[in-house]
Structure to design on (333 residues):
């Protein structure tokens, strides 16, 4: 089919150009959720909330109350769907994770066996390219950790936590994974043996506690202009010319009122078939059992079908009613 060949060429060009035109970006979330009965996770994630411009929502670690649920329903309806949970299942229950997925959120959880491992995993997750300088604070002194979080926000640095009397294994592992060279210790309660251990391992250290002056590092500069920006603009210009041609050719194929199967994935076809066999309307909560996919997977499929204009959802009570709004040609599937 000629229009498919045109579309394939355009996608091939974009596949080649976009990696050059798009600089590295940090992981992106629309919301960060932490427990509301312990400040340490909230403080530890502050630098990353600031880095990706995502709000932090403290919640009851055992379950979501009705008011919080209502606000989260509004948030997901505004297409803010990517959520990060900070803490293991003992910090924030699996029930909360399931509730979020049932609402339509895509959930990522980052947590360790203790707060030092959680800090390590967060640092490596948000700085996969590493960081020459790392901030280190006590896992027990909230005041020092708060000061360390502010420093990490100001200089855009990862934050690790350690025990006060010795360097925690998670902190040491985080330094290795981040390929760090300099460690900025923050706080008065850290034992001198921690700095000695770091120096013996070859790290340069600076201790805000023994020193009052700011650390000997530069405040990060604004990101430089992407040198491939104009190449990317040229590619977009080419698309503006090519897309109308592709759409014209596509309309010749899609001129009928029925939607062809070529634009649907296997999973989307399975969901649409279940809706059709149910008379064109179905509760979203009934689909996972009918099609054999998980609730989060079904939620993502429905969102994609909505984007394509094939279905619409209506909130009824605690669930969604899904309606097929366009006829799909299922013959031969």
């Amino acid at each position: 089919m000629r229009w498919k060949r045109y579309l394939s060429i355009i996608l091939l060009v974009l596949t080649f150009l976009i990696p050059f035109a798009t600089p590295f970006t940090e992981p992106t979330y629309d919301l960060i959720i932490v427990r509301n009965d312990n400040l340490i996770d909230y403080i530890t994630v502050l630098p990353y909330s600031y880095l990706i411009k995502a709000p932090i929502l403290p919640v009851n670690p055992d379950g979501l109350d009705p008011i919080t649920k209502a606000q989260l329903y509004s948030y997901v309806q505004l297409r803010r769907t990517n959520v990060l949970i900070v803490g293991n299942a003992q910090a924030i229950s699996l029930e909360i994770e399931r509730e979020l997925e049932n609402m339509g959120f895509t959930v990522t959880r980052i947590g360790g066996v203790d707060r030092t491992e959680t800090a390590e995993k967060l640092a490596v997750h948000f700085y996969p390219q590493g960081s020459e300088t790392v901030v280190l604070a006590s896992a027990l002194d909230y005041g020092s950790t708060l000061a360390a979080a502010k420093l990490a926000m100001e200089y855009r640095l990862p934050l690790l936590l350690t025990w006060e009397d010795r360097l925690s294994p998670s902190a040491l592992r985080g330094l290795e994974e981040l390929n760090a060279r300099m460690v900025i210790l923050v706080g008065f309660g850290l034992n001198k043996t921690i700095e000695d251990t770091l120096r013996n391992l070859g790290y340069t250290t600076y201790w805000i506690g023994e020193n009052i002056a700011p650390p000997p590092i530069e405040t990060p500069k604004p990101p430089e202009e992407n040198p491939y920006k104009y190449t990317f603009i040229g590619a977009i210009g080419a698309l503006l010319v090519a897309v109308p041609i592709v759409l014209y050719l596509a309309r010749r194929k899609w001129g009928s009122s029925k939607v062809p199967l070529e634009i649907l994935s296997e999973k989307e076809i399975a969901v649409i078939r279940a809706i059709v066999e149910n008379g064109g309307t179905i509760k979203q909560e009934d689909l996972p059992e009918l099609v054999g996919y998980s609730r989060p997977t079904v939620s993502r499929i429905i969102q994609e079908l909505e984007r394509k204009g094939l279905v619409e959802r209506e909130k009824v009570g605690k669930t969604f009613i899904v309606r097929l709004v366009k006829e799909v040609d299922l013959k031969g599937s």
The chain is about 45% helix and 15% strand. Residues 20-24 have pLDDT under 50 and may be disordered. The first strand starts at residue 31 and ends at 35.
